[in-house]
Model the fold of this input.
Amino acid sequence: MPAANPFQNALRQLDRAAKKINLNEDILNILRNPIRILQVYIPVRMDDGKVKVFHGYRVQHNESRGPTKGGVRYHPKADLSEVKALAMLMTWKCALMDIPYGGAKGGVVVDPKKLSHGELERLTRGYVRGLNGFIGPNRDIPAPDVYTNPQIMAWIMDEASRLTGYNVPGIVTGKPVEIGGSHGRQYATAQGGIFVLQEVCGMKGVKCDRFSRVIIQGFGNAGSYTAKILHSMKFKIIGLSDSKGAIMDLKGLDPNKVETYKDKTGSVVGYPGTKKLTNAKLLEQPCEILIPAALDNQITGQNANRIKAKIILELANGAITPEADDKLNKKNILVIPDILSNAGGVTVSYFEWVQNMQQYYWDEEEVMAQLRKVMTRAFKQTFETAKLHQVDLRMGAYILAVSRVAEAIKLRGY
Ligand code: NAD
Done:
């Protein structure tokens, strides 16, 4: 059977939750579709003088609970199905965290590693001009995602401010602190996931402590900070990877040193004293905690039965397919679903936006205290909902999130 596309997978998760809560058919119909899709073609003057045209998207899924929010992904394989799926996930994630946003996502079909600094800046500014009027602090607020970073967010903020005529820091989050970013945003996704992991580890019957072996796929924003924070907490990081491959060392890796090596060589692969393996094989190695933190569709019906971890913290959006979920459940592997695990990013993005709107800035301690509060609350509510409906944590999270969005739609009328 060919693999379902990401949007079909997202619809299947929604339909499952809708069935569990007997969701009104009209509301389900509304939720099965995004509210708006914008496609842009962005001409960029390349360094060699020629013009290349790049294809970009922005999808807004639902705005019943507030302006839409979601990252922008620069990836050669970005496509509409993926962006639609990710926009829908953002709606559930914001509702689950109980923050006043709907969901959106953006994508540009490009391999940013092949662009110069100047080309990347011109592409980003072109994308923002294409989105002019479609995004805004009270409308739709982009943020970083795969292969986009604080520098790109700074260009988005600058271009949008030029188009508006005055500074609009609240139009984008994930900015550098110097221009209205929030303290702690850089490692918020990782830290949020770890706050949830700590709650899980505190549960009866779950064996996970600081001696647990951890494998992390992906060494970007989400993966590298998770590795470094867990290492500082004395967890044993035995496997890491990036797009070029994976490395393992059963004695434990120091992610800070691996990062220095990657900065010099361009990859974690080749780090002295480690065994090299493929990304696919890395996922199948014995460990207590497995953390996919790269791309979607990594644990599927094909390889789920070979996963040997006890707990999976799904930091990457859509890393586990619905078929895989069923198999992992049968194997008693505890999955902490993406919309809960990685919601620390959007939560601190929300804090950043609040600070921008109020022009009053918090210190890092305040940000982290608030983040812990929101993540812990969301975990407890998810756990209770899952228990009540006798479902897994993903379905618990979906039931909670979909119910909240449905209630907002019902109250506002449709
Ligand atoms: P990033 O661009 O910083 O890092 C991506 C990492 O994945 C890189 O190390 C890259 O080498 C690796 N990678 C790329 N292709 C791969 C492949 N085929 N196999 C293995 N590794 C591969 O991106 P990020 O921001 O860390 O995002 C990673 C995941 O986390 C995505 O699913 C994203 O949606 C999700 N996420 C990120 C944030 C955030 O705040 N950054 C928030 C929520 C969710």
Summary: The longest strand covers residues 51-62. The first helix runs from residue 6 to 20. The pocket of nicotinamide-adenine-dinucleotide is lined by residues 144-147, 189, 217-223, 241-243, 279, 293-295, 315-317, 342, 345 (CB under 6 Å).
